[in-house]
């Protein structure tokens, strides 16, 4: 674990006390339920709330109570994107984007390379003349993200970037954030209450509850722990996995990709993806079937071999963790298949169960 973020702070708000001591890398997430203190932590890092302690980002001390250091928000060079985006309602998308960059409202278009690049990256070209009241929630978030990036921040602080979005728009929002991180190399710290979202964006996770750090470490190690899954209450779990496009099979209606572990699977035919392109795919835990022998005679085209790492009971459901995957089962299925930790299995999925997220 790296120490891009080095945090040791205490924030008191009435009876609520937030205490965080942790070190995190350049792609990190803070996960926890409502009221855990996630947004307060983000605001303290941004300098919008006074906390006791020390915060350093990328080796630079932003505050240190012991030595009296406290950089004001405007000197921290952080791109803070709150849940509502905080756009100016009386300004167009273009003028919202350029307001912070040029120090005043500006109508400069196609004269700034950074602006042009971000408009393309975040797919904002068709929105530039619109006003915030005519934008969807996902569009407002993309505009707020673009405005933050045009200020050339040392990192992005994102507060619940997909809150209130339907699944399709949420995936598009995640795709935009991932592109910003991977293509522009901007470090990020994301606050979310959704473990799946954190897995899609972050390498490391800080699990926060009641103002206290419950766990910190690699994202999968923290978020696939039984206690975290139980806290999710059996909600639909979306698996995320990285992949590379290998070749297209238009006659068969599929595109072949290789998963992060090297396994070959087919996804719905996506001709606009170039061979060699890096992807982020998702598939629901409910759409993964388990077999105890190599499957034959099935219409499902994908079968990946593995072993059951653990069985996690959540209410009346059971999740089988197989490597990076979670498959949703019933207790009856677990009993009939004789599944236990260490059992060899094959994960089976239909081609059309896969979704391209980014």
Mind explaining what this structure looks like?
The chain has 358 residues and is an alpha+beta fold. It folds into two domains: 5-231, 3-Layer(aba) Sandwich (Rossmann fold), CATH 3.40.50.300; 238-356, RNA polymerase II/Efflux pump adaptor protein, barrel-sandwich hybrid domain (OB fold (Dihydrolipoamide Acetyltransferase, E2P), Beta Barrel), CATH 2.40.50. Helix content is 25%, strand content 35%. The protein has ten helices and 22 strands. It has helices at residues 38-46, 73-76, 93-102, 113-121, 137-150, 167-184, 195-201, 219-223, 226-231, 331-337; strands at residues 5-13, 16-24, 27-31, 52-57, 60-64, 69-70, 78-81, 155-159, 188-192, 204-209, 212-218, 238-249, 254-259, 264-268, 278-284, 289-291, 302-307, 310-314, 317-322, 325-329, 344-349, 355-356. A six-stranded mixed sheet has the order 7-8-9-3-10-11, sandwiched between helices. Strands 2-1-4-5-6 form a five-stranded antiparallel sheet, covered by helices on one side. It has a five-stranded antiparallel sheet with strand order 14-13-12-15-22. Strand 10 (204-209) and strand 11 form a beta hairpin. Helix 5 (137-150) packs parallel to helix 6. The longest helix has 18 residues, at 167-184. The chain is globular and about 65 Å long. The two termini are 25 Å apart. Mean pLDDT is 83; it is low at 102-111.
